[in-house]
Batch of 2 targets.
Target 1
Amino acid sequence: MPDERVKLLAEFIEPLRVEPGSKVKLARDFDPGYKASFLKKKDGAAILQAGVAVLAEYQARLAAQDTWGVLVCLQALDAGGKDGTIRHVMSGVNPQGVRVSSFKVPSAEELDHDYLWRYAQRLPGRGEIGVFNRSHYEEVLVVRVHPELLDRQKLPAAARGKGMWARRYREINDWEHFLADNGFKVVKLFLNLSKEEQRIRFLRRLDLPEKNWKFSAADARERKYWDDYQAAFSDMLSHTSTEWAPWYVIPADHKWFARICVSSVLAYTLLDIDPRYPVVDAARQDDLAQTKELLEAEAPKGAAADPARAEIAADKQDGQESKRARKQRERMKKVRAELAKAAKSTA
Ligand code: AMP
Ligand code: MG
């Protein structure tokens, strides 16, 4: 990939990626409060904007090419920032090309099927980006921490007991491998929040009347299971980060930084797919030329045959787009230089 942005983004997100096959212990391996030392909050908005612009452009190409689909799985503990991340990171993309699905406690109908059924129904089509706000990973997280939820899944005895979580990891990995092989990229993001930051965010929800609706007493009760969740997340990351669908652990205590990270992973994914606008073949080009002639012949008296051509030329001269692109590239170059400096000083 000749694009300089791909290299830059790859470097930036590399420390967030869970190496397939590695054994993760969250508390030891990932700091929820991490923010790259060379990035300042005041630069955050500009960098996020750059990511949003890439997403907008590449989502349009993805849709036009209609070959690849992208599934983004967002996992976090309560108050981890999933909703806000989706709102900010996806703010530039065409709503027609994106579908967000939120997964709650399963319904009776859903419990009457295998545990992946409801997720399969919400998969993106080709050309689409599907965002799972919570995902099939709930089936090895909340269901593991609360065995009574497993009771409700009506499984045959042989499907439970020893080895069942290892089996679910394998089944999930196989499912994602199948999707990847068939043109659907699976991007998995875990927003990693600290216990103290969660406490503060809960208190904010209680202190601000307009945030009260977001608070549920059940969320606070779940804090009792904090250590169980950390263990379940660690085990999940250790077993389901694969070459075809790696996990990214996003430091989530600083929202502005988490959003930059998420948008970088998504921008990287799309740049890596590198979707292209379909090229029209020669026969179709002849067709288009003929249609153009017909339309030009219909010009009313005194009107230009093709006013659109003049507009396009004016747009090009205006150079708005390229000026923005140039500024973006310069910004990226600066970040890149800082990255190199930071890498040297830690080496
Ligand atoms: P929220 O995302 O805050 O609206 O909450 C959704 C709730 O649904 C959370 O408490 C999740 O733990 C719960 N949930 C999501 N998926 C499942 C599942 N597969 N089984 C049981 N509970 C789930
Ligand atoms: Mg909730």
Target 2
Amino acid sequence: MHPAAWAALGPLLWACGLALRGGMLYPRESPSRERKELHGLWSFRADFSENRQRGFEQRWYRSPLRESGPTLDMPVPSSFNDVGQDRQLRSFVGWVWYEREVTLPQRWTQDLGTRVVLRIGSAHYYAIVWVNGVHVVEHEGGHLPFEADISKLVQSGPLSSCRITIAINNTLTPHTLPPGTILHKTDTSKYPKGYFVQNTNFDFFNYAGLHRPVLLYTTPTTYIDDITVTTGVDQGTGLVDYQIFVQGSEHFQLEVRLLDQEGKVVAQGTGCRGQLQVPNAHLWWPYLMHEHPAYLYSLEVRLTTQTAAGPVSDFYTLPVGIRTIEVTEHQFLINGKPFYFHGVNKHEDADIRGRGFDWALLVKDFNLLRWLGANAFRTSHYPYAEEVLQLCDRYGIVVIDESPGVGIVLAQSYGNQSLQHHLEVMGELVRRDKNHPAVVMWSVANEPASFLPPAGYYFKTLIAHTKALDPSRPVTFVTNSNYEADLGAPYVDVICVNSYYSWYHDYGHLEVIPLQLATQFENWYRTYQKPIIQSEYGAGAIPGFHQDPPVMFSEEYQKALLQQYHMVLDEKRKNYVVGELVWNFADFMTDQAPQRVMGNKKGIFTRQRQPKAAAFLLRERYWRLANDTWRPPAAGRSQCPEGGLFHV
Ligand code: GCB
């Protein structure tokens, strides 16, 4: 490999294999916990030096970034790629540097009984963090949070401020998730000296930067580190099994109370683990499956320790939805009732901010999902922000929670190093998302080359590991109908299959879809006898392009293609097909390529979230499916404008 490529990887090479430590509870305010969000403008510099190492050679973390050269204002959270006017920054590969000065409340710096934690929601892809020039943490993986306890640093001197420096490298290798490669173009008659590009095997833009909230929060020094909740139902009685992990002391008391939505205590317990029983429990139901979907209880945990100064308590409140999940040979059951996924695949993607978290965008997306009558989505192709899952819990939108295992197609990506990392990522994902009632299944990968011989061992190990981490949820990975052999499918609980008939094959021949799709379902079911979800299908449509009879890229073609799929889905859902997720919710940005017109246009909404004709078709269908699959009691029925039983 060219030296510049190794340099671009930098510490990636020596820091792989970090072990999973402690819990990753979402930082919530409570009587014992404060939080300070570090949204807004950070100082920023991309290291354009040839080996991308100038920042380390000159130790940019040792003093304010502005002292080592010019800086830009960079919004956080946001991708850095699309906010500027610099073409080179848009496609930059290597280290970028973020910095922020923070003033801390006096209590945080002077009260030694306070623990101060820095939490980074996600940094794509490899991050190194310093506080006041001191290295505090590193993290590999662009879609999951990581933390550092910085109490000692901020409590050791007279300073009431601290300087946070974060170096982030977006270089992908065959062993990262997702994988990628650096390609050096060495023909000097065509490319300047040292020229390289990053190649990937996934169909979305590799946005980078601080994509999610960065914040500081406090806890007492003895604190609730993690909570695991699993739920069950026994003849109407809700069962809430809890386990609580404490750090900082071995001598403490734990009290646990479960409150309903009126604030009434419905069950209580003490100690690190136990079972709470809730007679006549309100179950957590998906949207459009019950008159009162998404019922959430609050699990209040209080930890008390004795200190020289008297008793000290830590409080944490976790939303809890009581529900069960079960998979049979041909059904996916939620609370014992057949559940049919009618929804979408999404991306975290929007104009200007790229993959950056944005509340307005999030609420708009949920309003669109509910307008559409969607009851589910898949977090294609990486874990989404925690705030997204919180809204799913609140609105009853069911989630297939996917790891960043997308584009695993190189033989090198099936070795031990990659597997080890993938196991760790599943550990981090389950640790973060295990308590969300909306999450009903883990997806370990999307369209891996599961026909390559090492894929059998790889997926057997990965799926067994994921089930051991969380025995309460089924596991899948998403395959492609084109694959002749699938060495991972024997290990999954549900078959998720993507196909693009009359789009990537038989262009324009919509009439072949019914036969090809029926054959697809019959083959998979015959081989595996497992429920099947059509996890992707769709067609590109450029908004405003019209042609009838339909031709590719017109809104009419997108609609007609979906309709052909729906005919078969309606037949097969009587048997073993348990869901359909259209590709994609909205248009999204990709790498530049002749087959992509300013990104992927398979959205049923534009990138600006305006409906194409297909959105109205799906809306009509999803409301009908909701009314077909769950018939509310007559008294609870109400007409939606299209004549369905539910309100829109
Ligand atoms: C797929 C991939 C998805 C692509 C989509 C397409 O199979 O899973 O990431 O964007 O096809 O539009 O080609």
